[in-house]
Specification:
alpha/beta, 465 residues, globular, Rossmann fold, seven-stranded mixed beta sheet
């Protein structure tokens, strides 16, 4: 028996939720609390609240220690409490509309190191697909629990965050064993890129004007900072740079797995980034600089922001307003701390001042990392004020200008060439496909597809009425 085709919001509705049918919008907002597994929650995929205000926080300078304004978009109000659900929905609805997947026939496979798999489990099962998530076995326990709670099956592969090759090997095994398996590879599929280019990028463009109205910044975004996992989130920078050509796009990766910095490799603890290869969807030709962040600084920074002793120390010893302390404890995860440390480094490197705005992303929150915090306490002991002060000085206030690589033409060429080894040698792309990415028009065509996909979503919606 055929399963009902389910579609959710258009890209334009995810960017501007006020354009959603008011009855659908009201029901979606209600179901966010009453029944978060109802498919109508797909209409809650947006960076904006019920009043169409952007979910963001201007970080206190007592925390960052720099004059520039560092602003985070936080995604805890998305379904699954991570913005990755937007990427998974955009990928799946596009595949559906172009006839590449059918819920009555195909099983979806979501290769992931965490939040994309969680998003795939949520979206795939809400849209009537059987879903399998492939995840490294050493990822946090909470990730596995969330995936299963959304109704998907999990396959654990050897290793940790940077063991993506093992994930790819498992996807090929599943492909060969079942002709009805469809792999939605976040590192490759351009729906991931399109969500962040159009929805995240344009949201940040709008945010600049809202901040200026409040006396923050000069109406521009000086830099956008994003660590690379799939290479999707950093695509927002492509849209921002179209508005402000002098805007800086800064990518981040772990020192312990510094692939783009110096062909480095290794395991690390910043879950969600640093996957030991250059992803297909990452527009390296647009990246102005690469900076590396220490993984344990990111883990200790999260502990500082969420542990009661750390929070008290921030407020009493460093003068961070208590309202900020409490708010930040709710929307930071490890990669969010990494992004902020990168934003601090960016402010210092480019010598940005009080009129400049740097934007970055909190991709998830502490609820995915309680087990990691337990491990940290077991390893380094319970936090006291001295330890909290040390972590403040060594993470937020102590960021140095080491591990910085500017994106010269020669460097960007190297970043591009690194794609060959994963995508042509291992994953079946051709040299001609890889060479096509050198042309900005290749990226523009993928950006423009947003409008075609929106048209098809509206047509599909009309046919169901």
């Amino acid at each position: 028996m055929a399963k009902k085709l389910i579609v959710g919001p258009t890209f334009e509705e995810m960017l501007h939720p006020e354009k959603i049918d008011p009855e659908i919008r009201a029901k979606a907002l209600r179901m966010m609390k009453e029944d978060p597994l109802d498919p109508i929650n797909l209409f809650n995929i947006t960076w904006k609240d019920e009043n169409n205000q952007i979910y963001h926080h201007v970080l206190p300078k007592e925390l960052t220690g720099v004059d520039a304004n560092i602003v985070v978009l936080h995604s805890v109000h998305f379904p699954t409490r991570s913005h990755k659900v937007g990427a998974t929905y955009s990928v799946l609805v596009e595949k559906e509309l172009f006839g590449e997947v059918d819920p009555s026939v195909h099983t979806l496979v979501w290769p992931s190191t965490g939040n994309y798999g969680i998003g795939g489990a949520f979206v795939g099962c809400r849209m009537n697909f059987n879903s399998i998530v492939i995840l490294p076995e050493d990822m946090s326990r909470e990730r596995f629990e969330m995936i299963e709670s959304y109704g998907a099956h999990v396959i654990a592969t050897p290793g940790s965050e940077s063991n993506v090759k093992e994930i790819y090997d498992k996807t090929w095994e599943l492909r060969r064993s079942d002709p009805n398996v469809r792999v939605l590879n976040q590192f490759e599929v351009m729906g991931n890129y399109r969500f962040h280019y159009y929805v995240t990028g344009n949201t940040i463009v709008e945010l600049a004007a809202h901040l200026q109205e409040r006396g923050i910044g000069n109406g521009k975004i000086a830099a956008y900072v994003s660590a690379m996992g799939s290479g999707g989130t950093i695509a927002a920078g492509d849209r921002i740079k179209q508005v402000w050509p002098d805007h800086k796009i800064v990518g981040l990766e772990p020192i312990q797995c510094s692939t783009l910095y110096n062909n480095g490799y290794g395991a690390h603890r910043i879950e969600g980034i640093g996957d030991k290869h250059v992803t297909w969807i990452h527009n390296v030709w647009n990246m102005d600089a690469l900076m590396c962040i220490d993984d344990m600084e990111s883990v200790r920074g999260l502990a500082l922001l969420t542990d009661p002793v750390g929070k008290e120390t921030l407020a009493k010893r460093y003068g961070v307003p208590e309202a900020d302390v409490e708010a930040m404890s709710q929307f930071f995860g490890i990669s969010g701390v990494c992004n902020v440390l990168g934003a601090i480094k960016t402010a210092k490197f480019y010598e940005f001042g009080p009129d400049d705005v740097i934007v970055t992303i909190c991709t998830d929150a502490i609820d995915r990392y309680y087990s990691v915090m337990d491990w940290l306490r077991e390893t380094e002991g319970e936090m006291d004020e001295t330890m909290a002060a040390e972590r403040m000085q060594n993470t937020f206030h102590g960021q140095k200008l080491d591990y910085v690589l500017e994106g010269s033409l020669e460097v960007r060429e190297r970043w591009h060439n690194l794609k060959y080894y994963t995508w042509v040698e291992q994953q079946g792309k051709t040299v001609e496909e890889l060479d096509a990415q050198r042309d900005p028009e290749w990226w523009h065509k993928h950006q423009e597809m947003v409008h075609e996909i929106d048209r098809r979503i509206l047509e599909a919606r009309a046919e169901q009425q």
